[in-house]
Write a structure and sequence with these properties.
The structure holds 2 protein chains of 2 kinds.
Chain A lengths: L1 H14 L2 E9 L4 H12 L4 E7 L4 E7 L4 H10 L3 E9 L2
Antiparallel strand pairs in A: 1-3, 1-4, 2-3
Chain B lengths: L2 H14 L23 E11 L7 E8 L7 E10 L3 E5 L8 E9 L4 E11 L1 E2 L2 H10 L21 H10 L6 H15 L1 E2 L11 H7 L3 E2 L1 H14 L4 E8 L17 E3 L4 E9 L3 E5 L1 H10 L7 H9 L3 E2 L3 E5 L22 E4 L2 E2 L5 H4 L1 E7 L1
Parallel strand pairs in B: 8-9
Antiparallel strand pairs in B: 1-6, 1-18, 2-5, 2-16, 3-6, 4-5, 7-14, 10-12, 10-15, 11-18, 12-13, 16-17
Helix pairs in contact in B: 3-6, 4-6, 4-7, 5-6, 7-8
The chains are: A alpha+beta, B alpha+beta.
């Protein structure tokens, strides 16, 4: 029974729609800022992929629909930067 | 640029460098602080890299800053080897920064590089009377130096920086007198904040706008450089690393009784300004604040004031300089750019920069043996 539930949960999570957010970030000064932000974003539940770029001072984050944009902004704030959502695209 | 070309290039630079004045030992200055002022010093510097990452199977790229050659610092021997898949030595960037680049393909194996250099240094001082004489001539700034009047992302020349520079140099026409006015203010108002990570980010704008003047060497040097640029004096930070014992104070460099030092975290940023007719002048406002903090001395203390006098126009060479690049793009182009400064080894795993402020996690060690 446990195995069936696990399979259902796994399948459900794969089927869940994902979104991609582009976030502009203030306060980045060096490549280590990009690493800190990326790692903080990747620690959030539901984040599948995060790319942070110093030259554009922005992040592109792929995440599950169940995760909110506020969660992403909080993750950025947690490591000392401030983020602003530029766009959100649904990937379903 | 190939390794042979690089070596040829650095030898040529040392031969063709036109302006260098031998350090002069003042006869009335007999204390121990100056006893080795004219002596050449030699250091064997060893780097060992063993690049680490969270996962065992990863690729890596490393850009390590290498010293430039000049009459006050000379790389006599350079050897390196490792298990990299590719490497080059290049200065393909907007500041001609010398870089040893190594790349490892994605694999489970250790990623190792060893570099060994023998570096000869000599106390660097430009006599005050010659600086004053050149400054009075008010010669035009050469075209190739004009770049060091321009702002960069972290060295703005507008806003509060401009206001402060104008306030400090109001009524002063002579370039060197402007330098002195700015140097006096910077060395007095700034203080070393030990909580700042590494050498600091060198964000002159943040410092002046926040009104918080605590920082480390890059922060303090950047403030000095930004104010000088506004005042029409070309200036630049010079990134490098301390190599061993200072004859002035343990605060400025030390080694064990056999001249050995683990210098993995001894990166240090200094400054230079340019007076046409005499050239680049060495300076180090940040070490004034380090001396105050480490020896618990007041700014007015004679030992602090003596160092302040010296570091307006000299460098003790228990240090070697790498470059003066700010906010520039390395070659081959990394995933993250521009780089704020290259005083530390820089490495990336995919698009993640490794934490160069923590040698043990990166990982690297740098040691120096005075010969």
């Amino acid at each position: 029974m446990k195995r069936v539930i696990l399979i259902i949960v796994t399948v459900f999570s794969y089927l869940q729609a994902t979104k991609i957010a582009t976030i502009s970030i203030e306060g980045m000064t060096c490549p280590l800022c990009a690493t800190a932000i990326k790692r903080s974003l990747k620690r959030c539940d539901g984040v599948i992929k995060a790319k942070v770029r110093l030259n554009t001072k922005s992040a592109k984050v792929e995440y599950k629909e169940s995760t909110t944009e506020q969660t992403l902004l909080k993750a950025i704030k947690r490591v000392g930067y401030s983020g602003k959502i530029v766009s959100v695209e649904s990937m379903d | 640029m190939k390794r042979r070309d690089f070596l040829k290039h650095i030898t040529m630079v040392s031969i063709s460098m036109p302006i260098f004045i031998e350090a002069s030992l003042k006869t009335d200055d007999t204390d121990i602080k100056t006893q080795n002022i004219g002596k050449k010093r030699r250091f064997r510097v060893k780097y060992h890299f063993d690049i680490k990452y969270d996962e065992p199977n990863f690729p890596a790229r490393l850009w390590n800053p290498m010293p430039y050659n000049a009459p006050w610092q000379n790389v006599r021997i350079l050897k390196f080897n490792g298990n990299y898949d590719n490497f080059n030595i290049n200065d393909d960037n907007s500041y001609d920064v010398n870089i040893l680049y190594a790349r490892w393909n994605k694999s489970n194996r250790a990623k190792v590089l060893d570099i060994e250099m023998e570096i000869e240094t000599k106390y660097r001082e430009v006599p005050l009377n010659l600086i004053q004489k050149a400054s009075k001539q008010n010669l035009p700034i050469p075209k190739e130096v004009e770049k060091f009047l321009e702002p960069t992302e972290h060295i703005p020349t507008n806003g509060k920086i401009a206001q402060k520079a104008q306030e400090l140099t109001k009524g002063i026409d002579d370039r060197f007198q402007k330098v002195k006015a700015i140097y006096d203010w910077v060395t007095e108002i700034t203080f070393r904040d030990p909580k700042v990570i590494g050498c600091g980010t060198g964000d002159a704008k943040k410092m002046i706008e926040s009104g918080y003047f605590g920082g480390k060497c890059t922060d303090i040097s950047s403030l000095f450089v930004a104010l000088l640029r506004v005042a029409g004096v070309p200036a630049r930070e010079v990134f490098g690393i301390r190599l061993g014992k200072s004859y002035y104070s343990k605060a400025l460099g030390k080694s064990d009784n056999r001249g050995f030092a683990n210098i993995s975290t001894w990166q240090h940023c200094r400054a230079e300004y340019y007076i046409p007719g005499i050239g680049w002048i060495p300076s180090d406002p940040a070490d004034i604040t380090k001396l105050e903090l480490v020896e618990n001395l007041k700014y007015s203390d004679p030992k602090v004031q003596e160092l302040k006098k010296r570091y307006l126009h000299s460098w003790e060479m228990n240090w070697v300089g790498f470059n003066w690049g700010r906010d520039f793009v390395l070659s081959p182009k990394p995933e993250q750019f521009p780089i704020n400064m290259l005083g530390y080894p820089y490495a990336e795993v995919d698009d993640e920069a490794l934490n160069y402020y923590v040698p043990s996690s990166f990982s690297y060690t740098i040691s120096s043996q005075e010969l």
